[in-house]
Amino acid sequence: MIRIASQALALAALLAVTAACAQTDAKSLVTSQALPDHAIWLQSLDLGLMTCGWQNPQKDRSIDNNPLTLAGVVYPHGVGTHAESEMMIDLKGSATRFVAMVGLDDEKKGSPGTITFTITVDGKAVFNTPVMRGGDAPKLVDIDLTGARRMTLTVGDGGDGIDSDHADWAGAMFLLKADATDKPVATTVPVEAPPDIASGDGPEPAIHGARITGATPGRPFLFLIPATGEAPLTYAAEGLPAGLKLDAATGILSGSLAAEGTSVVTVTVSNARGKATRKLTIVGGAHKLALTPPLGWNSWNCWAGAVDDAKVRASADAMVSAGLAAHGFTYVNIDDCWEGRRDANGDITSNRKFPDMKALCDYVHAKGLKIGLYSSPGPSTCAGFPASWQHEDQDAATWAKWGFDYIKYDWCSYGGLKNVGTGLEYFQRPYRKLRESLDKVDRDILFSFCQYGMGKVWEWGADAGGNCWRTTGDINDSWGSMAGIGFGQDGHEKYAGPGHWNDPDMLVVGRVGWGNPHPSRLKPNEQMVHISLWCLQSAPLLIGCDMSRLDKFTTALLTNDEVLDINQDPLGKPAGRKARAGQTEVWARALFDGTIAVGLFNRGGEAADVTATWADVGIDGEQAVRDLWLHKDLGRFTGSFKVSVPAHGVVLVKIGTPKAE
């Protein structure tokens, strides 16, 4: 027995020494200048296939183009990226080992950045870090890949959004078989055909869109009743409040409310096939705009500085002709680059691309739609045009005189001003100032803050008079950007509700391109994730594509009424994350009809089962489940609902039986 025990101790010691040698070997590998035999660097793969939540992945440099540095150690090789980031690799069966050192680059030491690293091999997570911050000791990666076929490298945002999430795969390399003929290559998530998106556009009349709207008494009121069905449609309304009238041929409600108060109007839409009836609540009072999130279009993600009068008119035309207005889309918004000089009185003018702003507003209003504009609290806009600094009252009066209904107020050059406050006062002052100016004019103008989430704007945006506020930096049409922003909104939902909404930026579906439009780089299932998340979160849905070239898939994405109803739900309780397991997440929200909307998301690179438990979403008993994208009843379930979700995909369901209205 003594001899056996001695042998066991010797073997354990040998294994410990071997493990220590392997650990030392991995550390020396990741700091080496040159490759060992039969190895390749991670950065030698196609980094164009690595998603990145901000900027582009960098070879042998940090995301800010500095030397890769973790805890004071400089690594000569590796990849700098930014959460959310993902890289899928076809190992070709030739890799035997992967080594790297991972962490938050020292360029963001002391920042709010938080990240996680996950490595999945053939569908199984083999490496996970806890949440890592600047200054934390980096983590050594040393993974056996013998016989492995696929590998995914993922950088998560730590659960708090992507601000300052500068991640390094330092010294990352693959060791290969000595006789390997093929080398690992970067690949992408397979393009899976999305499910057929259901359409509710039949010949019978149907009413869609918001169930509640509000306005200030005495100011112009405009609301197009969204409805579909075989033309011609005839509209009727019973119980309209004093001051409003309905055009029975167009469905346009107009006039001005005579008094404060709430009216429940019975709206009827008829055609040769029958009629549809629905309740519309109209609220009169101060600051009653955006009782549901605004739906519309904004010029920037498509046209950027190339926007002009003709493109805006064409977008308004397309909103009607493509059927978006019939599903509740209302706003046609001009972003930056419309501005001209100030005249002798200091009044802002439009440039030559916009010869007559009032005529443009009248054109849009005649369709029953609303129109928005853009400015900045600083001396100049982001594109360098005159902005509203020290002209707030004048500009608000001009916008109202022209007929604008929405203002996006972008931080831009305000950040360069001196002596404009400290702490939260610094972030709040310009928005409170314009709120005062908007309150002086005789027109309702929805107020959208665009200051990228600074000072935790979601905590004070409503108090400062905002109807919606950006919570993040600019989005782009990549999985890393969209997913990083969308899944980073958890916790913000408690600050949003009717009249004041979190805004995670505009949509990147359809043909986008910031002046050079191209089809969105998001795959079809990723676009469904995008719309599902934004609807669950009660985010403004501002289309950013070329409206004159809407394709069938994009139109279907934007006109699915059961999905849009989640966004426009009058209860106004945005979703939060209810569960997370690996690369899967469950988000849910309560709805006005007593049901629960639930999104089952798969952020991973391969199909995965996702389960929503009744305990997580706050219900019990046997419940009906309906797929909202498919308009399909899935059956009744007790305790939980499990479904296979494609890579970078979603299943969006409603759980429960709607109560009668």
In a few lines, what is going on in this structure?
It contains eleven helices and 43 strands. The relative contact order is 0.10. The protein is globular and about 80 Å long.
Structure description:
The chain has 661 residues and is of the alpha+beta class. Helices cover 19% and strands 33% of the residues. It has four domains: 186 residues, Sandwich (Jelly Rolls); 79 residues, Immunoglobulins (Immunoglobulin-like, Sandwich), CATH 2.60.40; 273 residues, Aldolase class I (TIM Barrel); 80 residues, Immunoglobulin-like (Sandwich), CATH 2.60.40.1180. The protein contains eleven helices and 43 strands. Helix 5 crosses helix 6 and helix 7 packs parallel to helix 8. The radius of gyration is 27 Å and the shape is globular. The N and C termini lie far apart (80 Å).
